Amino acid sequence: SSKPAVVAATITAEPYEAELIPGKKTVVWAYNRSIPGPLIEAFEGDTVEIRFVNKLTQASTVHWHGMPVPADQDGNPQDAVPAGGERLYRFTLPVGSAGTYWYHPHPHGDTSEQVYRGLAGLFIVRAKNDVLAHLPEQHLVISDLRLASDASIPDNNMNDWMNGREGQFALVNGQREPVITVGEAQRWRIWNACSARYLRLAILGRKIILAGSDGGLLERAQEVSELLLAPGERAEWIVAGPAGAVSLMALAYDRSKMGKVAPEQDIRLASIQFSQDSAAKLPERLRTLPPRIKPVAKKRVVFSEIMSMEGGQHSMQFLVNGKSYDMQRVDLTSRLGDTELWEIVNDSHMDHPFHIHGTQFEVLDTTLKGKTTPAPWRAQKDTFNLKPYQSARILITQKHLGLRMYHCHILEHEGQGMMGQVLVK
Ligand code: C2O
Ligand code: CU
Ligand code: CU
């Protein structure tokens, strides 16, 4: 369709029994009894109306990760839908918003649990003049699962709260090591929907053709040998090549976890079967991003950790600008439509992915140990990883009034207060 339309759906969050291990029952929480939840697709210009029904025993919200929706429709922690309640989310997708998004709960303190029990779904916004529209698509949602021996999903332990929760299985579309078949060249969309697992993606023996980031296509496709997707990040790839079978890997990535942890290992996520020789014929230019705007204001956001001893127990605090999240507190204010230069600083010894609601940003450069590196290409991002003591400069423009959260996308860190909020006036 090419006329603006209303895309309507109902998503119901509810607990139910699934058979993840043959013969055993696992209680999962999911949208419409499916993991991942239903894919919602819309075109730029469409109006989206989602009825959310909360059949959980906890309050919840639906947050449209990365999408430029009004603040009061974005599932803020302040707008929780009580257990047993429901509400309508309604927004119109502006031109330029085509991209690979997802939705997940955002009730303060319970986001980690609601996501690791299965609540997350996919959202794709398409452009009407999409230069890659002719390519068949595959969607790879990578998520994490931990099951106890009785097949139940265990609560977070101390290590999970420190380092972020990782499961024992990294799943692709809910499956372990599936076989993915590629005939003609394909467009892949890949989501890192894990709470904390980093994915250093590689196709063994082949190159990756990167065509898009969180917020849609790059200006030009880029050939890379690997791609790090931190929790919350997405990418678009063009997948083509000679016939044969290869492995899609998540290579070991050291994100400087705390405490005694097992060494990182390579994980085989899937096997890719190229059933024929294929080639990616791509236009020289995938997209033209608007020129960079000179910023009119500056802000600084610092992630830090404090280790403290309480009653003989080590405990960590995860902070933004020295403070733990407070739903009632406005940490920063921005003016609607102003382009701002934000410096994001990771003043800690472990990786943290920075994420902000309501808009995409562009990373200009990163600085590590006094060395500044310009971004390798222009890209629209809403989540960006910072290595220990690394900083990044981003250009950002908020296009809706209201309150927006920014936080570490390791959901356990976010839940413990590594989050702030900016009021757009
Ligand atoms: Cu993906 Cu504030 O979240
Ligand atoms: Cu978000
Ligand atoms: Cu973090």
TrEMBL record:
Subcellular location: Cell outer membrane
Coiled-coil residue spans: none
Cross-referenced InterPro entries: Cu-oxidase-like_N, Cu-oxidase_C, Cu-oxidase_fam, Cu_oxidase_Cu_BS, Cupredoxin
Keywords assigned by UniProt, alphabetized: Metal-binding, Oxidoreductase, Signal
Transmembrane spans: none
Domain Plastocyanin-like: 21-129, 312-425
Chief location category: membrane
Membrane-topology descriptor: Lipid-anchor
Designated name of the protein: Multicopper oxidase domain-containing protein
Organism whose genome encodes this protein: Iodobacter violaceini
